[in-house]
Amino acid sequence: MNGLQSSEMIERLKDSFDEMVVYKDLQKSNFISSFKLPSFMRDWVLKRFQDDDGEIDVEGATDFIKEFIPKKEDWKAIMNRIVQYQEQVRFLAKVSVNIDIKTQGVSFSLPDFGLSFKDTIISRDVWEMCSASLLKAEENWGIVELGYQFPENDRTSGKIKLINFQDFCPYIIDLDEFRYARESFTLNEWIDIILGAIDYNAAGYETQKQKLAMITRLLPFVEKRLNMIELAPKGTGKSYLFGSVSRYGWLSSGGTMSRAKMFYDVARRTEGLVFGHDYVALDEVQTINFTDVDEMRGALKGYMENGKYTVGNHEGAADSGIILLGNIPANSMNEYGNMFVELPNVFHESALIDRFHGFLKGWDLPRMNDDLKICGWALNSEYFSTIMHELRDDPTYRAVVDSLVIVPEKSDTRDTEAIKRICTAYLKLLFPNVQCVEDIVAADFNKYCLQPAKEMRAIIKMQLSILDPDEFGGKTVPDLTITDIEDF
């Protein structure tokens, strides 16, 4: 989708999605790019200050961003206004809440600004008014209004108080409407729509294979606990997609990773990254330092197997997928060679690698260039990322996959589950209107869902045979096939 979109296609897109369509021009919207907003927030601002022809009120949008979306370096000035001058300040921020079991008190934190629970308070009347919005997720984006609460006596401290909270999402998500809208487009058109929703220009890709490789990156966005590995050349946009498109995921780049940060911090009694996120993507994984390899490996194996983790006396459960993102030299881009030598030592164990469902060949993607940047009418990224988040809770698609797929006798359970899980994610992305087996053509299901899933799992199996030939040498993925849809 680009500036050469047909007027008929544009009208169909607008008719199907109404207010969820926005004009994006990433090559010309430099004034917004300079504020370094994630795409889901950028589209919200664009829509707010855009007319029916896609023209942007640059001055209005700039003033709004400066007033309501402060930078980290603005925080001291905001604190000064609140504490020293007792002003009430409103701005857009990510909020997390904490309920104290002992005192029944409620506090909040602003993780992006370093404001912690111990320095804040939410009064009972404000909590009753805003709790529904603040409890939707572990962290919620919205317009916060902050003020100052003076110390009650000499033994207490002043607090930053929450006066009001307005949820960031300005619309209601209706999955049924989304499914119905999908029926207005061919598969090729729908693939282009997905690419536009995540800020890519479909016309900039040379082949459908490249387009589908990009869409494959979205599988963990729609399917719970889908674990993937992607090795790719530099500059293919891994960091952007996993770090900016969705507010429900988490991208960790380099640095140090510990079990406490990933799963549970005993000292602070706080849940880790897997809790409350749709995925945790470890970017530039070769540069990440794991504090205790054996400890992390054990925690990952348990969690990736069943979604549960135990740290000390704490038992937790989560639905986040684990994604490894790494760069790979040109001479190593071969699924039949030892690619995983590029990974940190913590992943040099077959039992852990076996728990990754699929491998994405990042070299199937083109290096990012201006022709791949969206310029045209497209779905609002915030809307589409929320749709993907909601699709995670819909069991209908897995039921369709279970009904359609024939599993050979004595198939390896991990292989079967991996293929079915990837297959389900493809079905959600490419055919969200499918609610029963009769809704999809068998050839389409086989080509766009089952076969890619088998190929992604087969690469993991190949790498396992190289990593641990005694255990996995000569083993292949089971040949799952499709039931004849006419039998239903």
Features:
488 residues; five-stranded parallel β-sheet; alpha/beta
Strand-helix topology:
Blueprint: H1 7-17, E1 21-25, H2 30-33, H3 39-48, H4 58-68, H5 75-83, E2 89-99, E3 106-109, E4 120-121, H6 124-134, E5 140-149, E6 159-167, H7 175-182, H8 187-197, H9 208-216, H10 219-222, E7 228-232, H11 238-244, E8 250-253, E9 256-257, H12 259-262, E10 264-265, E11 270-271, E12 279-283, E13 289-290, H13 293-306, E14 308-311, E15 314-317, E16 321-327, H14 350-353, E17 358-361, E18 375-379, H15 381-391, H16 396-404, E19 405-406, H17 413-430, H18 442-467, H19 469-472, E20 481-482
Parallel strand pairs: 4-6, 7-16, 7-17, 8-12, 9-13, 12-16
Antiparallel strand pairs: 1-18, 2-3, 2-5, 5-6, 10-11, 14-15, 19-20
Helix pairs in contact: 3-15, 8-9, 16-17, 17-18
